[in-house]
Design brief:
single chain, 117 residues, mainly alpha, 2 strands, globular
């Protein structure tokens, strides 16, 4: 297993619940959470199918980074959204640290999760 797959597997329940919950709580003001959820589901499914090997999920992680403005936490975010984005950011950092490549975005490790309007 890789650190990335270990991280996703260890946080699977929290990420499943978090990405689902933010679609319910924040969709009215942040419709991008639906795309975050869809990309996460693809990542989750590829990790499960990889049987511990590094799956190819760079595009999905890059898309989440783009959708969230580099994992920026909106001012009106609840703790669930903040925690979910931070976990996804950490997963992205681990993926890139293991040689996984994003596509056309700044490194998740360099993206500060800051409060935005």
């Amino acid at each position: 297993m890789t650190a990335f797959t270990d991280y996703i597997t260890a946080n699977l329940d929290r990420l499943d619940l978090g990405t689902f919950a933010i679609t319910r709580a924040h969709a009215a003001h942040h419709p991008e959470v639906f795309d975050v959820r869809r990309n996460y589901e693809t990542i989750r499914d590829r990790v499960a199918a990889s049987h511990g090997a590094q799956p190819q999920v760079g595009e999905e992680l890059a898309q989440i980074s783009r959708l969230t403005g580099g994992y920026a936490i909106p001012d009106d975010a609840c703790m669930t959204l903040e925690g979910t984005y931070r976990m996804l950011q950490e997963a992205h950092r681990l993926y890139e640290a293991e040689g996984g490549a994003g596509t056309g975005t700044e490194s998740a490790a360099d993206a500060d999760a800051v409060r935005v309007q």
